Each structure stands twice: as C-alpha cells, then as structure tokens.
Amino acid sequence: MRRLMTLKAARLVVALAVALTVCVAGQPPAAAHVHKVFHGRDFAVVTFNHTEVSLCDEEKDGHWVFAIVRYGVAGLGYMENKNGAHGNCVTRDFPRPVKFIKVCEEKKGCHQGSV
Question: How many CA atoms lie within 13 A of 26 on its CB side?
Fold first, then answer.
C-alpha cells in the first residue's frame, strides 16, 4: 500500500514538473508580441525577437518619416521611409534586440518610446 502512494506522489511530481517546464519555456514564436511607437498615424513597429523594425508612413501629407533606433547595449541605427503614404513600410533587421525607437516626421518633430 505504501508503494502505491509513492507511485501516485511520483506521478504528481512529474506532472507538475512538465507543466512548469511548459510555462517556463515560454510561448511559441507565433505568440510573440508586437510593439509600436507612433508619431501621429506614422509608426515604427518592432516584431519577432525584437530585432526587426518596420517604419510606416500612414499620412498623405507630403512629409517623409525616419527613425532612430537604439539596439543592444550601445548600437545606434537609422532608417527612413520616403515612399509616402502608399501602403508600404520599410523594414530593417538589427543585430541585437531593439531597446528604444524615436519616430520622426520631416518638419514635424519626433516621438520616442521604449520597447
């Protein structure tokens, strides 16, 4: 009888360990979150493992947009979208995870945000 109780306890411990492992392992890549920094309707979006940034000009106002991107410990990147509001974004990969983005619009200023 004592051995049966030990077997049940062992099964419970294994089940809890498996459940904990699934939780700690994290979500699958499809569940990765997306972070956006806006300047009006223009925006930069960080996706996947925080290394890909898309810069989108959504305003048909004749002003192009650019972004200053801080990545890793001390990396600094720049990207621009001069295509206007034609429904397309400019995308760039950075070598380390993005920490900070400043989205700017020509002659209209900037807005910054942490990722």
Answer: 7
Q: Closest Cα partner for 33 from 106, 102, 98? A: 98
Q: Where do the domains of the chain lie?
A: 29-114
The pLDDT tens digits for 85-105 are 776 899 999 999 999 999 999
Residue 115, token pair as written in the block? 């990722």
* CATH architecture of the domain with range 29-114: Sandwich (2.60)
Q: Which helix (H) or strand (E) holds 11?
A: helix 2-25
DSSP string, 55-100: EE----SS--EEEEEEETTTEEEEEEE-S-SSS-EEEEE-SS-EEE
Cβ contacts of 64 within 8 Å, gap of 6 or more: 57, 80, 81, 82, 83, 84, 105, 106
